[in-house]
Design goal:
Blueprint lengths: L4 E7 L3 E8 L2 E9 L2 H5 L8 H14 L9 E5 L10 E3 L2 H9 L8 H14 L2 E5 L27 H14 L8 E7 L3 E7 L2 E5 L19 H8 L6 H8 L4 H6 L4 H9 L3 H24 L6 E6 L5 H11 L5 E5 L3 H13 L12
Parallel strand pairs: 1-4, 4-6, 7-10, 10-11
Antiparallel strand pairs: 1-2, 2-3, 5-6, 7-8, 8-9
Helix pairs in contact: 3-4, 5-12, 9-10, 10-11
Bound molecules: adenosine-5'-triphosphate and butanoic acid.
The site of butanoic acid has 8 residues, from loops.
Length: 359
């Protein structure tokens, strides 16, 4: 087996995570947190580019990392044009699409550019793996109910597919041998329907589809949304912030931290229990909808993300969906390793490199 050293960059809304991997083994990791004041001081996502790059380079310098040891620079991919899942070399068209945010603005849009910039200085290639816009929808999944608003795939394919591979291994096969329903339960929530290695449907975790999450409102009645839009109380940006960022648990309970909610419930706070259990109810309903997409042919339901650490939430969901298929829990997110493994599979010729944009 060849030996590779990867620098991995994962820009999130409140943090930039960086790791170094020797093949699939993590040898260094650091999460740089950003205050909301600092982030809010930039008008556009891409205005944060130099700030984030300088912080990454400072970490590498302070840890005396020898940059000449890197084989490739890898980042989480953002809102570029929709693509099939896989590993992509960053190119000019991708950079431009991420910069203008052809599918919307998100911190992950910075990933490809940061990786490309550092890679270019070192004479290396930059890659993204399973970007947030992986779209393998079947035609039926694209229909929303109005031709004005086609359904879009914006979610957590990187972690979902990593967990699918892990579960498939445990089950004695490969990702494309099984049908999975995978719920990524983080600050945002996405429930993907994976049919033999393709994510054929998923709720749009960013734009008001699917369950509410710690920070997002999920699917809400559009009549109320129209009223809010024309109430004169909010600008477009303020209303978006209210629904995505200050929706879900933040909206009802004033916190996005499930651990705080659990503490309140244990202290007897019935309202917190109602809201938190409603989130479990909505997640379960979305899983039920996915099981109908698969006509009941479901090998396993996989629950992952930060919320999957909480046994109370997991038990509420299991109680409602275990009749569909066995439930497996993979707490936390596995994105840094998934990024390293995506490029490793390509460099070891186990998977073909995808071309951006897809033809
Ligand atoms: N040990 C834990 N027990 C219960 N809840 C937890 C635990 N760890 C994290 N969480 C909760 O998980 C949620 C965040 O999950 P996660 O860290 O996966 O999200 P993120 O990476 O910020 O966002 P996203 O997954 O949408 O990119 C928060 O509500 C947090 O309180
Ligand atoms: C695009 C969805 C990723 C997130 O939840 O932030």
């Amino acid at each position: 087996m060849n030996n590779y050293t990867f620098l991995i960059i994962n820009p999130g809304s409140t943090s930039t995570k960086i790791s170094i991997f020797e093949n699939d083994i993590e040898t260094m990791t650091e999460t740089i947190r950003h205050s909301s004041e600092k982030i809010n001081s930039y008008k556009e996502i891409y205005d944060q580019f130099d700030f984030r790059k300088d912080l990454i380079m400072d970490v590498l310098k302070n840890k005396n990392i020898d940059l000449s040891t890197f084989t490739a620079i890898i980042a989480r991919g953002g809102n570029m044009k929709p693509v099939v899942g896989g590993t992509y070399e960053v190119n000019e068209e991708m950079l431009n699409d991420l910069k203008i945010g052809v599918m919307g603005q998100h911190a992950s849009n910075l990933g490809g550019g940061l990786a490309y910039s550092i890679a270019s200085e070192l004479g290396l290639k930059a890659y993204v793996v399973d970007p947030v816009v992986v779209d393998e929808f079947e035609p039926l999944a694209r229909i929303s109910g109005t031709p004005l608003i086609p359904r879009k795939s914006k979610d957590h394919p990187l972690n979902q597919r990593a967990v699918a591979r892990e579960a498939a291994k445990e089950m004695g096969g490969k990702y494309d041998d099984f049908n999975f329903i995978i719920a990524h339960l983080g600050g945002g929530i996405s429930v993907g329907t994976h049919k033999r290695g393709r994510m054929i449907d998923v709720n749009n975790a960013l734009d008001g589809d699917g369950p509410m999450s710690p920070e997002r409102c999920g699917a809400i009645p559009f009549g109320g949304v129209i009223d809010l839009c024309y109430s004169g109380e909010y600008t477009k940006k303020e209303l978006r912030k209210k629904l995505v960022g200050c929706g879900g648990l933040v909206g009802y309970l004033g916190t996005n931290d499930a651990r705080e909610v659990i503490k309140r419930i244990k202290e007897g706070d019935e309202y917190s229990k109602l809201i938190y259990e409603a989130m479990a109810y909505q997640i379960s309903k979305e899983i039920g909808a996915s099981s109908a997409v698969l006509k009941g042919d479901v090998d396993a339901i996989l629950l992952t993300g930060g919320l999957a650490y909480d046994s109370i939430l997991m038990d509420w969901i299991k109680d409602r969906v275990e009749f569909i298929a066995p439930v497996k829990v993979f707490p936390g997110e596995h994105e840094m390793k998934a990024l390293a493994c995506g490029v490793l599979r390509v460099l070891d010729n186990k998977e073909k490199l995808q071309m951006y944009p897809n033809k």
